[in-house]
Amino acid sequence: MRFKTSLTFAVAALAVATGLTAARADDSGKDWTKVVIGTEGAYPPFNTLSASGELGGFDVDIAKALCEQMKVECTFVAQDWDGIIPALQNGKFDAIIASMSITEERKQQVAFTKKYYNTPPAIAVAKDSDIPAATPEAFAGKTLGAQGSTTHSNYAEAKFKDTEVKLYPTADEYKLDLENGRVDGVIDDIVVLSQWVKADGANCCKLLGALPVDPVINGEGAGIALRKGDDKLKKMFDDAIIAIRESGKYKEIQDKYFDFDVYGG
User: Fold this and answer.
1) How confident is the model at residue 260 (pLDDT cuts 50, 70, 90)?
2) Are 14 and 105 members of one domain?
3) What's the rounded Cα separation, in Å, for the pair 153 and 144?
4) CB 174 within 8 Å of CB 168
5) Are 50 and 162 in the same domain?
6) What is the pLDDT of residues 87-138, one digit of tens each?
7) Residues 224 and 114 in one domain
8) Is the bond leading into 45 cis (omega within 30 degrees of zero)?
9) Which end is more exposed in the chain, N or C (fewer Cβ atoms within 10 Å of the end residue's Cβ)?
10) pLDDT digits 0-9 by tens, 130-142
11) Domain count within the chain
């Protein structure tokens, strides 16, 4: 789960203030039969983009199940993470389903549904690393990589005061630097890291451990972001999340990707 920086919020707020956004005052009169969904496509296993341009992953499969439950036609748009909130505000799509953390700062700019999953952050290191624990003390004087503009980079900068935090545009780039010894560890969602060290990163790296969740930084879980005022669409998504949880569809999708419960308490 990830988080936008204040700069992105400022850009989005300026768009709202200057009338550059396509957001409506409300959607009470709209008949939602078609919904456009934005996702990143670069955060496996949650969202991916194949060489042929097909979006997939847990976020996308959950989105498709929600659309089926709501009986609406959904289309998907791949959007770089750094521009995803402004793109929503400017009407490029109607909803963001991209492992976006629900945080108080973001709530100032967008509306959120209830969570659809909630997992903690963690740290991965090289297999031969002598760093004993995923703690600020153990990383004093070390270098920690993170994807920029995320809850994880915010967490590292807030909690690991004596550590150099190196930021990357994508998760793939910090993984490459860890593989090549250019950082001592990396921080991200525990699912992202655990899946990686079991597959592509199996020869180089290991999961060091999970980190304590800070609700102020990490938020309330991953939710669907919507334009403020789209209350009708929000209720549709909220009802659909409850419905696929109760029907077993959520578990069916979850079990395709994970061997544990990602919804959280």
Assistant:
1) confident
2) yes
3) 9
4) yes
5) no
6) 999 999 999 999 999 989 899 999 999 999 999 999 999 999 999 999 999 9
7) yes
8) yes
9) C
10) 999 999 999 999 9
11) 2
Cα–Cα distance between 122 and 207 in angstroms, integer?
8
Task: Name residues whose C-beta falls within 8 Å of residue 124's C-beta, 6 or more positions apart in sequence.
Answer: 178, 185, 186, 188, 193, 196, 197, 201, 205, 206, 207, 208
Residue 12: inside a domain, yes or no?
A: yes
φ, ψ (nearest 5 deg) of residue 76? -120, 145
- The whole-model pTM stands at 0.75
Residue 18: is its pLDDT beyond 60? no
Pairing of strands 34-39, 95-101: parallel
Among 144, 171, 150, 148, CA closest to 43: 171
166 within some domain: yes
Provide the CATH number for the domain around residue 190: 3.40.190.10
Query: Does the residue 264 lie in any domain?
Result: no
Is the residue at 184 inside a domain? yes
126 shares a domain with 54: no
Q: How far is CA 159 from CA 66, 116, 141, 217, in A?
A: 36, 26, 14, 10
106 Cβ neighbours under 8 A, 6+ residues apart: 3, 4, 9, 85, 100, 112, 219, 225
Q: Find the angle CA(30)-CA(32)-CA(36) to the nearest 5 degrees.
A: 120
Domain hosting residue 143, numbered range:
121-217
Residue carrying the six token digits 């009407």: 91
What is the residue type of 15?
A: A
pLDDT at residue 235 tops 70 = yes
Token output for 171: 């998760």
Region class of 221: left (phi > 0), else alpha (psi between -120 and 50), else beta: left
